[in-house]
Structure formats: C-alpha cells, structure tokens
Specification:
Order of helices and strands: HHEEEHHEEEEEEE
Largest sheet: 4 strands, antiparallel
Low-confidence stretches: 8-27
Radius of gyration: 19 Å
Strand content: 15-25%
Number of helices: 4
Shape: globular
Number of domains: 1
Distance between the termini: 55 Å
Structural class: alpha+beta
Strand order of the largest sheet: 1-2-3-10
Length: 166
C-alpha cells in the first residue's frame, strides 16, 4: 500500500473515531462560538452576538426592557445598542441535545444543557415569542418553551442577543 493511500485511510479512521466519540461535535461547537473577552460571544452559525451570561436574577416580563436599556447597557462595552430578547428558535439552537452531554448545574440548583460558552444562572430564559397572549420562556433542562404568567418570575432570566447584520 502506498503512503498516500495509507495516510488517507488513517485520517478517515481518526475522523470516524472522533465522530463516534462525540468529540467532533464538541470541536464544531468550539469553532461556532467566538468569545470576545468583553462579556459577549459571537455565534458564527447564526450570525448573532450573545451576552455571555444572563441577568443573574429572577425578572418579571414587564421589567425586561428597562433592564436591557438601563442595567444591561452598563455591563458590557457601549459598542452596540441593538440588544433584544431571543426567539425560541435562537435559544433552541443553544440547547445541546446530545444525551452524552451532561451540561452544568446553575446557581439556582437546576441542571441545564446549553452550549458551554454561555453561562446561565437558572433554568428559564425569556423569549420574544408569545402564545395565547402570554410570553414564552425556554427551559434549558427540558429543551422546550412554554407560557409564563405575567405575574411569575421564578427562575426566569434574560439572555440578551443582537443580530450582527443590521
């Protein structure tokens, strides 16, 4: 067997092993996100920039816009002003469905399965989507969204996002 054929087969076998162990998926996720070191993470797959952490406390739906405009604006460099709530599909893209991925435990004690580049302090993240006249929150333990009463804030967080294209 010549050296070129051997190298090709060896590279193919290594790639197959990486894919079977899940390392390949993890490596692709690592390439998907760029940590800017300023509290933001760029998602190259979706063309979005995420806050690296949520707001770190329970928050009512009617408090979100004030928090985004006043409190959040002071937490990262004033380079951007188009922060918003994410959609369900944007949050779903951060949920890791791989059964081998354990995720991590949040500060409020719940496990979450979100990409490791983003840190949540609790299980639920408010979305910009509504159903039946109520806001939806995405559950990073179950990987699904559901309606939340306007008078409930238990475990609900804000994870700001902005589009890179304007």
């Amino acid at each position: 067997m010549n050296k070129t054929v051997f190298r090709t087969l060896a590279c193919g076998a290594i790639l197959l092993l990486l894919m079977m162990t899940g390392f390949y998926d993890f490596a692709l996720a690592e390439q998907r996100f760029i940590d800017h070191g300023n509290g933001t993470v760029t998602d190259r797959k979706l063309g979005l920039m995420w806050a690296k952490t949520d707001n770190q406390a329970d928050i009512f739906w009617n408090q979100i816009q004030g928090w985004l405009a006043d409190d959040f604006a002071d937490t990262i460099p004033q380079l951007y002003d188009n922060w918003r709530l994410p959609t369900i599909s944007e949050l779903q893209s951060l949920f890791v469905e791989d059964p081998k991925y354990q995720g991590y435990q949040t500060l409020c004690g719940h496990p979450v399965k979100i990409v490791p580049q983003i840190r949540l302090s609790c299980i639920l993240v408010w979305t910009s989507d509504m159903a039946l006249g109520l806001p939806l929150a995405f559950d990073f333990n179950l990987g699904s969204a559901f309606t939340v009463s306007l008078h409930n804030n238990k475990a609900c967080r804000v994870l700001p996002v902005r589009s890179l294209q304007q």
